[in-house]
Amino acid sequence: MTSSSFYPIGTPGTPWGPVEVVAWRARQSRKRSYADEVLGRVDALRAHFDIAEYGRLDYAPESYPLYAVRSRDWNDTLPTMLVTGGVHGYETSGVHGALQFLERDASRYAGRINLLCVPCVSPWGYERIHRWNPDALDPNRNFREHSPAQESAALWGLLAPLRGQVRMHIDLHETTDSDESEFRPALAARDGKPFEPGTIPDGFYLCADSARPEPDFQQAVIAAVARVTHIAPADPDGTIIGSPVVAHGVIEYDCRRLGLCAGITDAHYRTTTEVYPDSPRATPAQCNDAQAAAVCAAIDYALAHP
């Protein structure tokens, strides 16, 4: 089955050029407000954290400030824990789970860790509920030096001085039904490849980094989240989204080779969460709770296993 069966832009078998990207961008519309839903909550954290603008996305006529939330009393003798959300802007609980963690849970780690959190890496995508940026680039395939994706390049620049100092990095994501109905067909069309239908896992799972999988760390996060929402079972062929399940609720990717956010530092412990917000067994609040629980479990494990 070809991508033309599902996606209205481009010629089957031919990768997109600038004309197709412009046509795709024209189909995207602003559906929610980064300023109201994200920046307002970040600003409210100033009483307890240092807030820094680490970059700005210039997508004329729009411009988006990018903010990082840092421990106020940064101490180089303490372990550094990194939390990122909204790399894919449409993955709502990645953004709001990170904010919820900052608002409700982060205070209990004061004086014990250096916390650095970027709640929304991709605000243009957040507003349009989309995976890509305006150039039809996926930020989570472009975390590398001299990245063509502004979102990825800005975060790379922020983290470059800390790359060897981060003990734990957790990157908060979702897998949604729209992955199969919109984003994978669009990807196939963009790249001039056939669209091959897949499956959407019902439940939470983790993507470990195959370069440093740390299975006990992954299972500690899974155990914490299982108290909040259900863990995705493997498909009959033993995979989740086509990748072999290596442990309960865990698959692996080569994060650095693929340009994924979880591979951006040399963190000893690193993982990517995947919440399923479209499940009839999960509510939006439950999804946010699952993300926050995953962050706490990841920090707790990294503190207990230096």
TrEMBL record:
What cofactors does this protein use? Zn(2+)
**Family membership noted in the UniProt record:** Belongs to the peptidase M14 family.
Q: What is the lineage of its organism?
A: Bacteria, Pseudomonadati, Pseudomonadota, Gammaproteobacteria, Lysobacterales
The protein in question is named M14 family metallocarboxypeptidase
Q: Which domain of life is it from?
A: Bacteria
Give the organism, scientific name.
Rhodanobacter geophilus
Which keywords fit this entry according to its UniProt record? Hydrolase, Metal-binding, Zinc
Entry's CDD domains?
M14_REP34-like
* Pfam families recorded: AstE_AspA_cat
What InterPro entries has UniProt attached to this entry?
A: AstE_AspA_cat, Peptidase_M14
- What residue stretches are annotated with the Peptidase M14 domain? 30-306
